[in-house]
Amino acid sequence: MAKEHLGFIGVGRMGGPMARRLIEAGYQLTIYDTNEAAMAPLCALGASRAASAAQVASAAEAVFASLPTPEIVAAVAEAVTGGNRIKTFVDLSTTGPRMSAAIAVRLGEHRIVTLDCPVSGGVAGAEKGTLAVMVSGPRETLDALRAPLEVFGKVFYVGDRPGLAQTMKLVNNLLSVAALAITSEGIVMGVKAGLDPLLMTEVINAGSGRNSATQDKFPKAIIPRRFNSGFATGLAYKDVKLCLEEAEALGVPMVVGNAVRQLLGIAKAMHGGDSDFTSIVRPVEAWAGVEVKRK
Ligand code: NAD
């Protein structure tokens, strides 16, 4: 039996490989991205190119979106109300709980159900289908879309309230960036004292300090000086900012979280929002007068 026709808006670093996996799993896809070049490889695999978000929403009942900022997600959510087939809007972006809840209400006025569905695991996880897929929204909507969501990775249902999955995602990303920030300080200190950074990560990974930065970002992106984890400093900053705003609204003090935001903000000011978020090590290196690389 032919699989259903799906829509996909925003086929960038994350959306591109996720959309490719859907095509390879046998789904027909109608895609839209403001960047023509991002759509070309997917069209070569058989995806149909739409001229607008509304056109995607007139081609498919379920429309997935992987977009950079909450404001862009809100604008695209508004645009899909112009389509005549859409029944479900699946937001894979990190949008924040408030915007996500507001979008669910707005789309509800058009009888469109929102599935809040942020993901974690980076570009590598999107390519391999090993993402953590965090879902909140109506359970029956998740059940209906479980098969395509499982193409992306492991699906976790965290509750029916719109925005709850976003909160889950923001906590995850705060931890990921905090690990990168504190590991930057520790490894720079070791390098300045004369330790080899790769050996440091091997020791830490066999010990109690291991984290996603020692296991992944330092060996693969920072020590080889590639700065290519695939996650932009500007997007990481957006996530930490959203997390701190949410924590403040909930009355949860975040002393460490605020320090992480400041260091990320300095990296963004020095290297730009488009730089890779592993650039967070660079201000620490500049202050210490050393570079984290092999001798
Ligand atoms: P990206 O900038 O690479 O991709 C976003 C895509 O959206 C781009 O191709 C862009 O052209 C397109 N776009 C922008 N405005 C548009 C519009 N109005 N209509 C249609 N398309 C539009 O970003 P990304 O790294 O793929 O991240 C996407 C989302 O996923 C973000 O919310 C991010 O926080 C989240 N995320 C990223 C990662 C990562 O490691 N990169 C991991 C997990 C979650």
Query: Which structural category do the helix and sheet elements fall into?
Result: alpha/beta
Question: Major beta sheet, specifics?
Answer: 6 strands, parallel
Shape: globular
The overall pLDDT, averaged over residues, is 97
* Series of secondary-structure elements, N-terminal to C-terminal: EHEHEHEHEHEEHEHEHHHHHH
| Alpha plus pi helix count | 13
Could you please say which CATH topology of the largest domain applies here?
Answer: Rossmann fold
What descriptors fit this protein?
Rossmann fold; three-stranded mixed sheet; 295 residues; globular; binds nicotinamide-adenine-dinucleotide; six-stranded parallel sheet; single chain; N-(1-d-carboxylethyl)-l-norvaline Dehydrogenase, domain 2; 13 helices; alpha/beta; 2 domains
Q: Can you describe what's shown?
A:
The structure is a single chain. By secondary structure, this protein is α/β, with parallel strands linked by helices. The protein has two domains: 5-161, Rossmann fold; 167-288, Orthogonal Bundle (N-(1-d-carboxylethyl)-l-norvaline Dehydrogenase, domain 2), CATH 1.10.1040.10. 54% of the residues lie in helices and 13% in strands. The protein has 13 helices and nine strands. It has helices spanning 15-24, 36-44, 53-57, 70-80, 97-108, 122-128, 139-150, 164-193, 197-205, 212-222, 233-250, 255-271, 281-288; strands at residues 5-9, 28-32, 48-49, 62-65, 88-91, 113-116, 119-120, 131-136, 153-159. The strands form two sheets. It has a six-stranded parallel β-sheet with strand order 3-2-1-4-5-6, with helices on both faces. Helix 1 (15-24) links the parallel strand 1 and strand 2. Helix 4 (70-80) runs parallel beside helix 5 (97-108), helix 8 (164-193) packs across helix 12 (255-271) and helix 8 runs parallel beside helix 13. The longest helix has 30 residues, at 164-193. The protein is globular and about 65 Å long. The termini are far apart. The model has no long low-confidence stretch (mean pLDDT 97). Nicotinamide-adenine-dinucleotide is lined by residues 9-15, 32-35, 38, 53, 66-68, 72, 75-76, 93-94, 119-120, 122-123, 230-231, 235, 239.
